[in-house]
């Protein structure tokens, strides 16, 4: 697991470093991904009090919102970094949204997503960075902290 300042990034996830970004992606099967918010968002949004997710079966193009969160500090949409379809939502996150703050890479996941063009989008999107690429994440986090904190 990579550590960037006070934030953790598992080696086996991809992080969306675009703006607004802060979404993690973990490949869990052929074209299937689990997604949630990264440790930066989990730690800096204060307690998340509400999460609304797009419905199971919803097809989304990259750049569309797939969830909306409300916290003590921020309310807004979360943007999907890949194109595909939501195949499962985490019912636990809807009942207890603060799990996303406490365990963003574990029980705090938001959706399971089936990507349309997984390899192509991962290979061609420079904003998707592996959690093991600590140097790239360090540069990005420095900019994010200056912008948001």
Provide an overview of this structure.
With 149 residues, this protein is α+β, with helices and mostly antiparallel strands. It is built from five helices and twelve strands. The chain has a seven-stranded antiparallel beta sheet with strand order 7-10-11-5-4-3-12. Strands 6-8-9 form a three-stranded antiparallel beta sheet. The protein has a two-stranded antiparallel ribbon with strand order 1-2. Strand 4 (23-29) and strand 5 form a beta hairpin.
Helix content: 10-25%
In CATH, the architecture is Beta Barrel
- % residues in beta strands: 35-45%
Separation of the first and last Cα atoms = 24 Å
**Assembly category:** single chain
- Tell me the number of structural domains: 1
Spell the H/E element sequence.
EEEEEHEEEEEHHEHEH
Largest sheet: 7 strands, antiparallel
Annotated CATH topology: OB fold (Dihydrolipoamide Acetyltransferase, E2P)
How many DSSP H or I helices?
5
Strand order of the largest sheet: 7-10-11-5-4-3-12
| Strand segment count | 12
Structural class estimated from helices and strands:
alpha+beta
CATH class: Mainly Beta
If you compute it from the alpha carbons, what radius of gyration comes out, rounded to the nearest whole angstrom? 14 Å
Weakly predicted, low-confidence segments: none
| Shape field | globular
Q: CATH homologous superfamily, by name? A: RNA polymerase II/Efflux pump adaptor protein, barrel-sandwich hybrid domain
Overall mean pLDDT stands at: 95
């Amino acid at each position: 697991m990579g550590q960037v300042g006070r934030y953790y990034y598992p080696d086996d996830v991809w992080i969306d470093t675009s703006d607004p970004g802060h979404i993690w992606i973990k490949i869990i099967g052929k074209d299937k991904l689990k997604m949630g918010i990264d440790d930066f968002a989990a730690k800096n949004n204060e307690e998340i009090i509400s999460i609304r997710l797009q419905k199971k079966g919803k097809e989304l193009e990259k750049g569309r919102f797939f969830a909306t969160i409300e916290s003590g500090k921020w309310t807004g949409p979360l943007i999907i970094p890949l194109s595909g379809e939501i195949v499962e939502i985490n019912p636990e996150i809807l009942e207890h949204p603060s799990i996303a703050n406490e365990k963003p890479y574990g029980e705090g996941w938001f959706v399971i997503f089936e990507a349309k063009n997984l390899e192509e989008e991962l290979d061609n999107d420079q904003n998707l960075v592996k959690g093991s690429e600590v140097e790239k994440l360090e540069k990005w986090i420095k900019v994010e902290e200056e912008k948001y904190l």
